[in-house]
Write a structure and sequence with these properties.
Layout: E1 2-3, E2 12-16, E3 19-37, E4 43-63, E5 67-73, H1 83-95, E6 100-107, H2 117-132, H3 139-149, H4 153-158, E7 162-165, E8 170-173, E9 181-186, H5 193-198, H6 210-217, H7 223-226, E10 228-229, H8 232-238, H9 241-251, E11 256-259, E12 266-270, H10 273-286, E13 290-295
Parallel strand pairs: 1-13, 3-10, 5-6
Antiparallel strand pairs: 2-3, 3-4, 4-6, 4-7, 7-8, 9-12, 9-13, 11-12
Helix pairs in contact: 1-2, 2-3
């Protein structure tokens, strides 16, 4: 079971003038409603992203030439489709910088789990490279590059609770978001986001709970009542055992439980570290997947 690091004041550490270590947080969606489909195949949505203290780590250092990427931890694609590789290439193409870089990714966030690890790695790669090269790109340039890599990559440049609309790229930060603990269970199962969206019936999702979203924007928080995810209808029908994880979290004292993104990860909300740790310890004994007990970031 992984717990949130305590007293985490910064997610970046400059080791010297030419190297940086930087953390890449995961996210959960505490609300996700599909509102339509665009002609380019993307889905319009309304969602609430919350970053959590479950991290990958990037170690980035300048080199004379070339792009070297190394991996530790979980297995993931090591070709040009890897988002760290794509982010680095896009940065150097945009800036015209000829120098090279060495990147080591320490992968802790489960792959294709609904926790946004790949998108977080991509955004953090852009931020880290820009930092090492004295902010050669503006905030707007970084956001454009991030969006070219994926719809939720811009959120990981922000790394604060936010309401997202459009395809996920229109972000409105939520101020004073309540401090919550999240027990996340991530089964050994990979879910394709494209598969889940393709099978979601839009006619079931026309009524948007806009009042709840407006309350968030006004700092009126009742998070358990907000929990909703259109994609649950698809993923939980395909994999019914995920429903038992939700039920276990609720039985162990969660204020609410929900699948994040397209799944398969399920999280429960807790109002104290003690309650979350106790639930996480019990869930580990159930052997339903990796268990993470982490604090939300704000």
């Amino acid at each position: 079971m992984l717990s949130a690091p305590r007293n985490e004041k910064s997610n970046a550490h400059l080791t010297n003038q030419t190297a940086i270590e930087i953390l890449c947080p995961a996210k959960v969606n505490i609300f996700l409603k599909i509102t339509g489909q665009r002609t380019d195949g993307y889905h319009e949505l309304l969602t609430v992203f919350v970053p959590v203290a479950l991290y990958d780590k990037l170690i980035i250092s300048k080199s004379e030439k070339g792009l070297e990427i190394y991996y530790r931890g979980r297995e993931l694609p090591k070709d040009e489709n890897n988002l760290v590789n794509r982010a680095a290439i896009s940065f150097f193409e945009k800036t015209g910088i000829k120098k090279g870089v060495k990147i080591t990714l320490v992968k802790n966030i489960p792959i294709s789990s609904g926790l946004g690890g790949g998108s977080s790695d991509a955004a953090t790669t852009l931020k880290g490279l820009n930092y090492l090269w004295q902010n050669v790109l503006s905030k707007e340039d970084l956001e454009k590059l991030a969006l070219s890599l994926g719809a939720d990559v811009p959120f990981f440049l922000l790394q604060k609770p936010a309401v997202a609309s459009g395809i996920g790229e229109i972000l409105q930060p939520i101020e004073n978001f309540p401090s919550m603990w999240y027990v996340i269970v991530s089964p050994n199962l990979m879910i394709s986001t494209a598969w889940a969206y393709k099978r979601t019936k839009l006619k079931l999702t026309n009524n948007i709970d806009q009042d709840s979203i407006n309350s968030l924007k006004k700092n009126i928080f009742n998070i358990p009542d907000l929990l909703f995810n259109d994609l649950e209808k698809v993923t939980l029908v395909k994999h019914p055992f995920l429903s038992s994880i939700k039920e276990s979290l609720l039985q162990l004292g969660a204020l609410g439980a929900l699948m994040t993104g397209s799944g398969p990860s399920i999280f429960g909300l807790f109002d104290s570290a003690k309650k979350a740790q106790a639930a996480g310890k019990m869930l580990e004994s159930y052997d339903k997947g990796d268990v993470f007990v982490v604090k939300g970031l704000s």
